[in-house]
Design goal:
Layout (H helix, E strand, L loop, with lengths): L4 E2 L5 H31 L4 E4 L1 H7 L6 E6 L3 H11 L3 E6 L4 E6 L9 E7 L4 H6 L9 E2 L1 H6 L7 E2 L5 H7 L1 E2 L6 H4 L3 H12 L2 E2 L1 H10 L8 H12 L5 H9 L2 H5 L1 H4 L14 H15 L20 H7 L9 H11 L4 H4 E3 L5 E3 L2 H15 L4 H12 L15 H11 L3 H16 L5 H18 L2 H5 L7 H8 L5 H15 L6 H16 L12
Parallel strand pairs: 3-6, 9-10
Antiparallel strand pairs: 1-8, 2-3, 2-7, 4-5, 5-6, 11-12
Helix pairs in contact: 8-10, 11-14, 14-16, 14-21, 16-19, 16-21, 18-19, 21-22, 25-26
C-alpha cells in the first residue's frame, strides 16, 4: 500500500508558495504535463512525477527538466513518448533503464525541455528510498497535478519528509548509504545548497566528511559538471569554503592543500589558500554578480563596465561553461605554485619568483584530470600565466602602444579576462586594507588598455604591411625562423605607430637586419609625423 500524504497548509511558508506553484503550472508547465499525461494514459503506463521537478515547483523556481518514474521499461516507453511529443529519445543508462526525451522548443524565449525517464519495478516508495536527498524524494501522480483545484488538496508521496525539509531550507540525505551508491552526490549536496540557498544538515555534513574519500572514484566529467554549476552561483566562494570544511577540496585537488597556511608579502591580508578563495568572491563582485564586504561599493565606480562587457563574460567557451565561471576557476588555482616557489631574501623579503609561469601547467594538469576541454584549459592557464602582466606593462603611467600590443599578442583570447582578474587579485590581496590611490590607478590602467582594445586594427592586430615573400625578394633571405622574427618586429613597430606603409616596413626590416649583422649600431629612426 503506497503511503500517500495529503498536504494541508501546515506552515505559513507553504501559503507563500501556493500562488507561485499555480502560476508555474498555468504559464510554463501545464500544457506539457497535459501532453505527457495524455500519452501515459493512452499507453496505460502508471507513472509518477518525482524529484527535483516537484522541489522546484514548490520553491517557485524556473525549471526545464521533468523527472518521471515509470512502472514500465523506460527504454520501451521513451522512444514512443519522444515520437508523440516530437522530441528525441537518448539512452542514459542501459543497465538501470534510464533515458531522456529532449524537446527542442521552436518558440522564442521558451525552454528546451528534458524529460528524464526512470524504470521502477518494485514500487514508488522503494524508488524514493534510493534517491539522494529528502527534498528530491517526493512523488505525485501526474494526473493529480493536472486536476488539483487547489494546492492544499495535492497528494504528495513524501515518506522521507522532504516537504518539511524544503520548509526548513535544509538538505538532508535519505539514507546513510547515498554516497556509497553515488559519490558524485558529495559535491551535489554543496552545489544544491549554493543554488537553492539552503543549508546542509549537521548529520549530512558529518556523513560527507566520513565519505569524502569516495570522490576519487567519480568520473572527472561528473566532477567538472558539478564544479561548473557551483561556480555559476553568485558568491560561490562561500561554498568553496564549505567544500573545504567538508574535506572535499583537497580530495579534488591535493595541490591546493599545500597552499594552506603559506604566508605572503606583508601587503597580503590572507594566506595563499584563503587569498585564492577570496579572489573568487572578488571576481563575482567586479562582474556585478556578488558582494565584497571588505570595502565600500564605491570601488566599482572606478572599474570600467558596460552591457557589452556583461555579455562578454557570459559567453560560452566549451561544453556549457562560460567565461565568468572559468575566471573564477582560474582564481582558485592562480597561486597554486606559490608553495614551491617561495623564497625569503637576505633582507627578509618573501618572494614567489616564477609562480605564475610554473602554476599554469600545474593547473592544467588538475583540469585535465577533471576532464575540462582543451579550450577551457587554455583560457584558465593563460589567465594564470599572465595574471601579473597587467600591472607590469607600465610603471605608474599609461603603457605605450608597443606595450599594449605585446600584452594582447601574448595573452590572446584571455586578454580581457586577465585584465579583470588582475583587479580581483588586487582586491583579494589587500582585503580591508585597500589603498584607494593604488586602486584608482590600477582600475584606470585596465580602462585604458580596454579602450586600446577597441582600436583593434591599429594597436591590437594591425593589418600586415609586408609578407615573408616580400622579405625574401627584397633582401635575398632564405626560409627560416628569421623571417618570422622580422615580420613580428615590423608588426610591433607598426602597432606602436613607428611605421605605417610598406616602404617604411621594408626600411625598418633592413635596419634590423643591419643591426643583427653589426653594420650599424643604432636603431632605425622614428617615423616622421
Amino acid at each position: 500500500m503506497i503511503n500517500r500524504h495529503i498536504w494541508g497548509i501546515v506552515y505559513f511558508q507553504a501559503r507563500a508558495v501556493e500562488a507561485d506553484l499555480k502560476l508555474q503550472l498555468k504559464t510554463a508547465t501545464r500544457p506539457l504535463l497535459a501532453r505527457i499525461n495524455d500519452f501515459l494514459t493512452s499507453q496505460k503506463v502508471q507513472a509518477y512525477v518525482v524529484g527535483g521537478f516537484i522541489r522546484d515547483l514548490l520553491l517557485a523556481r524556473d525549471t526545464a527538466d521533468i523527472d518521471i518514474a515509470l512502472r514500465a521499461d523506460a527504454f520501451e516507453v521513451g522512444p514512443r513518448m519522444a515520437a508523440a511529443l516530437h522530441g528525441k529519445f537518448i539512452p542514459l543508462d542501459k543497465v538501470n533503464r534510464v533515458g531522456r526525451v529532449v524537446l527542442s522548443n521552436e518558440e522564442a524565449g521558451t525552454p528546451k525541455w528534458q524529460i528524464d525517464l526512470s524504470t521502477i519495478g518494485d514500487g514508488i516508495e522503494k524508488d524514493l528510498k534510493r534517491r539522494d536527498f529528502t527534498i528530491d524524494a517526493m512523488a505525485i501522480n501526474p494526473e493529480r497535478i493536472m486536476t488539483m483545484p487547489r494546492l492544499d488538496t495535492a497528494e504528495l508521496i513524501d515518506p522521507h519528509h522532504g516537504l518539511e525539509d524544503i520548509q526548513k531550507r535544509t538538505i538532508r540525505v535519505v539514507s546513510q548509504t547515498v554516497f556509497k551508491q553515488d559519490a558524485a552526490r558529495l559535491l551535489r549536496a554543496v552545489r544544491m545548497a549554493a543554488e537553492l540557498g539552503f543549508t546542509i544538515s549537521d548529520d549530512t555534513q558529518e556523513l560527507i566528511r566520513r565519505s569524502r574519500h569516495l570522490i576519487s572514484g567519480v568520473a572527472g566529467e561528473r566532477i567538472r559538471e558539478e564544479l561548473l554549476r557551483l561556480l555559476a552561483v553568485a558568491d560561490s566562494g562561500h561554498f568553496l569554503l564549505t567544500l573545504d570544511k567538508l574535506g572535499l577540496m583537497e580530495e579534488l585537488a591535493p595541490e591546493l592543500g599545500q597552499t594552506r597556511g603559506v604566508e605572503q608579502l606583508r601587503e597580503h591580508h590572507w594566506d595563499v589558500f584563503h587569498h585564492s578563495i577570496k579572489s573568487v568572491d572578488a571576481v563575482d563582485f567586479l562582474l556585478r554578480r556578488g558582494s565584497w564586504p571588505y570595502t565600500g561599493k564605491e570601488v566599482l565606480d572606478y572599474v570600467p563596465w558596460s552591457q557589452e562587457l556583461a555579455d562578454y563574460f557570459e559567453l560560452g567557451v566549451s561544453g556549457g561553461s562560460n567565461r565568468r565561471q572559468l575566471i573564477k576557476l582560474a582564481a582558485i588555482l592562480h597561486d597554486i605554485a606559490k608553495p614551491q616557489t617561495k623564497v625569503v631574501t637576505d633582507k627578509g623579503r618573501t618572494r614567489f619568483l616564477g609562480h605564475a609561469t610554473q602554476g599554469a601547467p600545474i593547473a592544467g594538469g588538475i583540469l585535465e584530470r577533471l576532464r575540462f576541454s582543451g579550450k577551457e584549459i587554455k583560457l584558465v592557464t593563460d589567465i594564470i600565466r599572465y595574471h601579473l602582466r597587467p600591472v607590469q606593462i607600465s610603471q605608474h603611467e599609461l603603457p605605450t602602444r608597443r606595450a599594449v600590443y605585446r600584452y594582447f599578442r601574448d595573452t590572446g583570447d584571455a586578454a580581457i579576462d586577465t585584465l579583470f582578474f588582475s583587479l580581483a587579485d588586487h582586491l583579494a590581496t589587500r582585503g580591508p586594507n585597500l589603498d584607494m590611490d593604488d586602486w584608482r590607478y590600477h582600475a584606470s590602467l585596465v580602462g585604458y588598455v580596454l579602450t586600446q582594445h577597441s582600436m583593434k586594427e591599429e594597436v591590437v592586430s594591425p593589418a600586415r604591411l609586408i609578407s615573408g615573400h616580400d622579405l625574401i625578394l627584397h633582401f635575398g633571405l632564405g626560409p627560416g625562423p628569421e623571417i618570422g622574427q622580422l615580420l613580428e618586429a615590423v608588426r610591433e613597430a607598426q602597432a606602436s605607430g613607428e611605421i605605417a606603409t610598406k616602404d617604411e616596413a621594408l626600411s625598418h626590416a633592413g635596419h634590423l637586419l643591419n643591426l643583427r649583422k653589426g653594420k650599424i649600431r643604432h636603431a632605425p629612426p622614428a617615423r616622421k609625423r
